[in-house]
Amino acid sequence: MTSTSRAQSFNTAATQYAASRPSYPPTLFDAIEQLTGGHLTGAHVADVGAGTGIATALLHERGAKVIAVEPGEAMARECRKALPEVPVVRGDGNALPLADASCDLIAYAQSWQWTDPARSVPEALRVLRPAGALVIWWNTTAFDVPWIRAQHERIARCCGTQQVPATRPGDSDAIRLAGLTGLRVTRRQVRWSRVVPLDVHLANIGSRSAFLVLDEERRRTFFVYERRVLRDAFPRGEVEETYLVDLLMAVRP
Predict the structure, then answer these.
(1) Residue 241 carries which DSSP code?
(2) Nearest 10 degrees: CA dihedral of 245, 248, 249, 253?
(3) Would you say the pTM of this structure is higher than 0.85?
(4) CA-CA distance, 251 to 253, in Å (whole number)?
(5) Helix (H, G, I), strand (E, B) or coil at 85
(6) pLDDT the model gives residue 166
(7) Domain 3-142+168-194+242-251 has CATH 3.40.50.150
(8) Per-residue pLDDT tens for 131-180?
(9) What is the Cα–Cα distance from 135 to 111, expressed in whole angstroms?
(10) Residue 192 DSSP SS3
C-alpha cells in the first residue's frame, strides 16, 4: 500500500473524520505565537492538508486570515460546510496553489508526512514572506499512559504498521525525520487530553489511514475486540484520550 493510497483513503471517511478526530489545545497556538514573536490576528496563514478544517477553524478563531489547502474532494467539501467564510482551494504541499511571498505562516496539522520534503520545503519557502514561518505539528501517542501504549501495540499488530518506541526522538532526530535539515528549527511539545464517548474514540481510530485501507473483515474483528477491552477499562463509557502535540517551526531566512 503506497503512501499516496493511504493519503487518498481519507476521502472515504470524511464525515467520520470531521465528527471524531481530536482538535488542538489553545496552548499550542500560544506556543506558535511565542515562537514566531507575533500574533496570529491579521496574519495571512495557509493551512495545508486542511482536511475537514479542524486546525483551520482554530486559526480562524485566533483572527488569522486563513486559507485552507486540501487535495481531497470529500474532505474539502466538509471543510467548506464547516467554514463557509474561509476560502478552500484544492492542492497539496508539493505544489502549493499560492502566490510567491503571500503568507506569513504555513501550517501543516497532521499532514506533513504526506508530502515530499524535497518539494514541499522549497514550496513553503517560495510562498512564505521574509521572516515567515513554516509550522508543522501532530497529535502524537502518549506512550507513558499504559492503556494508550497497549492499544497502540494492538493497532500496530492489526495494521502491520511499525511500533514506535516509547522514547521519543530527540530534537535533531525529529528534524531529520521531518526532512527539515538545513533549516533553523525550533521544537516544542504540548500535552493535553479530552474525554469522549467510547463510540467517538473508536470512530477516531477507525478514521486513521492504516485502518481505512484494511479489508472489512480484519477491521471489524479489531473493533469488536477493542470495544470489549475498552468497556472493561472504562465502564462508564467515556474515554480520556491523552495527546502530546509535537510542534516543529522553521522561520524563513
Answers:
(1) E
(2) 180
(3) yes
(4) 6
(5) coil
(6) 63
(7) yes
(8) 999 999 999 999 999 999 999 999 999 988 766 666 788 999 999 999 99
(9) 11
(10) strand
